[in-house]
Structure formats: C-alpha cells, structure tokens
Prior knowledge:
Elements lengths: L31 H9 L12 E5 L5 E6 L7 E5 L8 E4 L3 E5 L7 E6 L4 E2 L1 E5 L8 E4 L3 E8 L3 E9 L7 E5 L11 E3 L3 E9 L2 E10 L7 E5 L8 E4 L3 E5 L11 E6 L7 E5 L8 E4 L3 E5 L8 E8 L7 E10 L3 E4 L8
Amino acid sequence: MTKRYLGNIITQNPTAPAGPYENDAAPGVWSLAEALAYNKAGLWPTAGNSLDIAIFFTKQNRDIEVVQFSTLGNATDWGELLHDDASMATCGNNIVGMFMGGAGNRPEINQVTMAVGGVATDFGDLTIGRRLGAGLSNNTRGVCAGGENTFDLNRIDYITFATAGNAVDFGDCVVFNPQGGDAGGSNKTRGVYANSGGSSSRTNRIDYITIASTGNATDFGDRTQARGLQAAGNNSTRLIFGGGDSASDSPVNTIDYVTIASTGNAADFGDLTLPRFELGAASNDTRTLFAGGNQYPGERNTIDYVTTATTGNAADFGDLTRAQDGVRGVSSNNPSQAA
Length: 339
C-alpha cells in the first residue's frame, strides 16, 4: 500500500507550485483543500487542465447546461439554479460561476462550483435588485455593472469570490446602463463592458474599470453599432460583442471586437450564423461560444463558435437542449480570470 506523507501528497518528494499560473506543474496527488488554497493564491497550474467547459443557464426549469470547448456537439444537463430567472449578469473564475440578479429585479447571487455541477448555492445579494446588468471578473473579484430595476441604474457592484456575502458598491457607470446584457470581459486588470442604453434609446458606448480598485467607470470607445441585449466573450487580449437588438427591436448578427488593454472604437469581426438577441456567451483561451437567443419572433437553440484571436463569421457548434432566450454563460478556463 502506498504510504501517505504529510501534506496529503502521495509522493516522497512533493513539488509545490510556484507560478506562473498558466505554465507551472505540481507533481503529486493533492487534497482538494490544498489545491483550492493554491488556486486562490493564483499559483495552481492550469497547463493540461482537463476542466475546459462552458455552462449556460437556459431560463426554463432553472436548468444549467454544459458543453466542452474542445469538441463540437450539443449541450447536456449539468445542474440548476435556485430560481427560474432570466436576464442575469454572470461572471466567475476557474473555481466558481456566479449568476447575479435576474428578472423580477431579484438581488440574489447564485453560485455554482465549476468542477462539480449540481444545484447552485446562495452567495449573497447585490446592493440593489436588477436585471440585465453586465458581468465581468478576474480571478479574485466579480463585477455587475448597470442594469434595470423599476428605474435605470448606473451602479456598479462587486463581490469577492473567496468570501460569500453581499455585494459592495464599486462606483458608477459613465451614464445609466439599463440594458448592458451579459456583455463584459477583462484582461485580469481591466474590465470592459457594453453600455447599451434603454430599449428605446440604444447606444454604442463601451466603458471600462480597473477591477482591483474601486471607482467610477471611464469611457473606452464605441461599438460598431448601437444595440442592446448582446453577449460578450474574450481571451486575455481581445473582447468580442455578438448579436443584440436595435432600438427598433430588430435582431442583429453583428460581431465586433476591441483590444482590452487599449482604448478606442470597436472593429468588425464577422457575423453570427443567425441574428438574435438575449443570447449568452462563454470563452476559453481559444474559442468564444454564443448560445441561444431570440430571432424575434422565435427562440433559438443554436450554439455558434468563433476563434477569438482571429476574425471571421461564426460556425455551428451544436445545440442547447431546447430553444431559449435570456441565456447566460460562464466558463471554467478563461485565461483572463487567472491571477
């Protein structure tokens, strides 16, 4: 029988990870508690990490569905949230995914564990209930910007993933951002999100914040088209916005992109396979997936994918288990979320 040594490592000469997060190795078999501690410190290696999934909340029956980024195919059941709500903001790191707010102006934040699935748990509440906020994160902190209550909001909240509890005020959007949708991303340092205006006054604004600090957002530039209810995905360099609707409620197939570390206007990336709004997105370091949405009329189960670092039209990835709008997504392995 193999001898178990101190530290819960089944090896006589364990090697602790020392960073960098993306490339290091940690020989030995570690307990979950130790791996979690190193992960929270930003030192757990991800090279060869087999957990590379996108999860999508699909509104109906509280269902969460999952796909593997590396293979094309249809989504399968993965778990469920505590409430049957659409129009949430999502964010996460390599350990947890957060679903914030939702229809009915809920304040609740639901948490799921990426490696486990199953039923979500309660994390805490936003500072005010809302729907359609823009979510983004780094490995430590998650942010919800703007949204709608009984009035339009310019409030930005943040949470600390390692500590369950209520959100804290971060600052304000540049202008009111009632329908940003789940449309934000980061490069570990800077968070960038769509500021889309209201249903009758769409804008093409883009704002940004420094995630590790607090304070008001700053103008970043403009998207190629004024629209709301889009989705966004990113790698550590580039943020892309896909789909949405115009002020006339017409769905669009537009994909455009910005370079997160700079400021300036977005450039054309390509087109989705179908025009639609209220879709969800999730990314790893290579691909961005766009799932579900409403083609008006008619919900869709389509999942598209693009290669984030290039430009071009989206291609078919597979299908959700049912046609849905109000879809929201988050991934387990986005390099922008590494410490």
